[in-house]
Amino acid sequence: MSSQKILVVFGATGVQGGSVIKSVLGDSRTAKEFKIRGITRDPSKPNAQALIKQGVECVEGDVNSKESLEKALAGAYAVFAVTNYWEKMDPELEKRQGKLIADVSVAAGVQHLIWSSLYNVNELTNGKFSLVEHFDSKAEVEKYIRTLSIPATFFMPGFYMSNVSGGMMHPNPESSGHEYVLTLPVPDRTPIPLFDAADDTGKFVKGILTHREKLLGKRVLAATDYYTCKEIVDLFREVKKEGGKGSHFVQISEQAFKDSLGGMPDRGKHEMYENMAFMTDFGYYGKAGLEESLAILDEKPTAWQEYVAKAKPWADLK
Fold first, then answer.
1. If I label 244, which of 36, 51, 256, 305 is the partner at 20 to 30 A Cα–Cα?
2. pLDDT (mean) for 152-181
3. Which of 173, 185, 169 has the alpha carbon at shortest distance from 251?
4. Is pLDDT of 205 > 80?
5. Beta strands of 23-104 (E only): which ranges?
6. What is the pLDDT of the chain when averaged over all its residues?
7. What is the DSSP letter of 128?
8. Do 38 and 16 meet the contact criterion of CB atoms below 8 Å apart?
């Protein structure tokens, strides 16, 4: 019988879950300690099949079904749990899903639940920004987990670098060259904790797993560093010396930002606006420092300059 502990990873073919699997398997110590069970909707799909070839046990799991979760978590030692608010944009659904995962984890005797959480922005800002639902719903699940008799750690992902390369920083329509402009509804001094979710989620979660005892009940703030809007653009120009020449930041109005989000529902647009706006005065992490969280890593997190150099949308820029 294998002596490996079962690590259940939700969202196995997604950004966060996929990164966890990559990091755990890529380290000889954790690869030896843990047997990974990846939870996915359809184990027959190519991404899941690729994981199976790497030795991952891929099983079907439905976060809305207690019976399905009981099967998925049977015998598990540790669980990395993440939910997808944006699929339905329903905070009550996300809370039900997260609480169900937690309840089944307790019943299954899980020894380490790692919940992908975020701060409660409504509470952090004393109600000024009350509609950042994809933060607040995860925070409510975290609050619930803290009432249960289960050892848990709370992984708090920073602001995805891919959000910047995915459209926030774009070619300047008023320029005939390769000038880029970062347009956000915040001042250029706003500190943003940038995070390469695809490459670095696993680094932080692996650190949580290997520092279990000292991190029970704690939050791990997963970001490389705080970068201001000005620094984001300055470093972009530094890496992309030709294609990024002349690139700059422009603070835009709330309405202009919402218009830039295209066909997203109005409620989602306002949520995204508040998601940006609260950071200036209150801080993405409530102005907490990153030093303790970075100390658990045995691999360096991705710096913004490194991300700029490798980001596919900017691959052709010199």
1. 256
2. 90
3. 185
4. yes
5. 34-40, 57-60, 78-81
6. 96
7. S
8. no
